[in-house]
Amino acid sequence: MEKLNLESSDIIQKNIEIIGSLFPNVITERRDKAGNITKGINFKLLKQELSGDVIDGEECYEFTWVGKKAAIVEANKPIRKTLRPCFEESKSWKTTGNLYIEGDNLEVLKLMQAGYLNSIQVIYIDPPYNTGKDFIYKDSFKMDRNKYEEQMGLYDEKGCRLFQNTVTNGRFHSDWCSMIYPRLRLAHRLLKEDGVMFISISDLEVDNLKKIGNEVFGEENFLADIIWQSTKSVTNTAIISVSHTHNLVYFKSMDYYVKHREKFRLAVEGEGFANPDNDPRGKWKADPFQVGGWRPNQQYEIVNPKTGVVYKPNANCSWKNDYHKFQELLKDQRIVFGKTGEGAPQRKRFIWEAEERGKVAKTIWNDIETTTNGTQLIKKIFAGLSIFDNPKPVELIKRFLKLATNPQENCMILDFFSGSATTAQAVMELNAEDQGNRKFIMVQLQEPCNKESEAFKVGYKNICEIGKERIHRAGEMIVSEYNDKETINTLDIGFRVFKLDSTNMKDVYYAASDYHQAMLEGLESNIKDDRTDLDLLYSIILDWGLPLTLNHNVETIAGKAVHMVEKDLLAACFADKISETVIREIAQRKPRLAVFRDSSFTGSADKINLEAIFKFLAPNTSVKVI
């Protein structure tokens, strides 16, 4: 029995917990004066978290690599980029809740921090496996061999090698760790409290990935390494044929799932359930009534009423329930003695009970499709063409989604190494099967297709073109295959395309103090000449922390185009020489945010008038200019 504390709260430990919730990687262990192990703070690492520059000095014992400090800085560094809408490459723009974003995922994840913080239910990624080839993500902290050896201290001051063996391979591990680390840090922030992350990886980097994952998520939030049999074929030329892929699973909060275990379950398929005795309660399955472990109140004799045989629990075992509960079950006709009534006691478990509890997933998955099935599906979608190498099978991603999502809840699924967009197809298929309302966000770098590949030869210049076309074709295929479903006509098979680009604003917007007055007067606008009103609108939506799938329409007020987002959530007018009539009409709508171009007003007097109108008609509206 625990004793009452009977003392005030430990403020220091509370502060450590708060810091740990923000930066789980800085939490360490130390001994107090009494010799007890307590939580502490790695202040050097915390200092690095709060610094915009690389902090010099020796690094203490921890999982580290050359370039880690730079990777931390990179994760926290702001960028001047935006996402530009691409209507012509989208599908069902006005009605879809799905996104396809082209660009470097590190920068896209940074841009998503405002609008999607604590909003994503599931993140699945299949990052580069670091097979020895240079992976395509070349971040600013990646280094060449000479730089690596310099930082590792492999040469003395005379340029002589300090160690007999080179560690060139370590450089590739460092590059890979520096690539994945900031991306996982940013992704972690996007997950909801009950969010789950699944990461597919090979043996080559699984050890490093788990160490990084434990640091980013906290070791206590690691759930499992699911071993998936990814191939059934054998490589006869190998010393041992690798037939599996690791899938690391992390919770945003293990505490949440400890309290809600039923939320991470697979559906019961119904195999093994029958009703041989016509029980009015429906189909059932006979479970063993004996369990492991010796419990004194669950040791008693059970007599088979048909044979008279007396049964006792085996050594170091017990019956599942105490004697009083057993009598209740027997009276309720839930105890059976085998198929013929002549065996040991068993307990009926009805299918509806199993469905309520769900099925616990195991860590070995050899009952699901392989990479070969993924390749065959790609060929089916693209009329027999081998358009993409080694895609994951849809059924694998669907099983992840079945574990971590509820069809009755709206949720978002993010894949920021989306490749051929298998995850998007999995989301659409599962929605078709269970009438769910899951939405996907695919992020993919515009990685060029090999000029010798079949994809390039038939016209696909980069991976994004393959991904978008796959979503388009797969969506139509799903609608056709599931046309017997009542809700199939409302299935969301569309997607909005956005492309990462430089900021919409000229340099003067960010550093006006660097320009003298004559230069400023010569500039007609802060905005780049090639940017449209819709480019500006969606950069504002992104910057203001709103999702990119909000509805918007354009109204004409006094001859000027006014963009209204989600009715009166946001109002924006980027026209020149806006009249007071336009301003008053917008203010009377009382939007939460109103945005105008700075160049729309001829002078300070006009801006003062703008503020006065909103202060009078819409005092709660936030008014901004760009």
Automatic annotation (TrEMBL):
Tell me which family the UniProt entry assigns to this protein: Belongs to the N(4)/N(6)-methyltransferase family.
Cite the DNA methylase N-4/N-6 domain residue spans from the record.
120-444
Q: Which GO terms describe its biological process?
A: DNA restriction-modification system; methylation
Which molecular function terms from Gene Ontology are attached? DNA binding; N-methyltransferase activity
Keywords from the UniProt entry: Methyltransferase, Restriction system, S-adenosyl-L-methionine, Transferase
What's the protein name? Adenine specific DNA methylase Mod
Q: Which organism is it from?
A: Desulfosporosinus acidiphilus (strain DSM 22704 / JCM 16185 / SJ4)
Note the SUPFAM superfamilies from the entry: S-adenosyl-L-methionine-dependent methyltransferases
Listed InterPro entries: DNA_methylase_N4/N6 (IPR002941), DNA_methylase_N6_adenine_CS (IPR002052), N4/N6-MTase_EcoPI_Mod-like (IPR002295), SAM-dependent_MTases_sf (IPR029063)
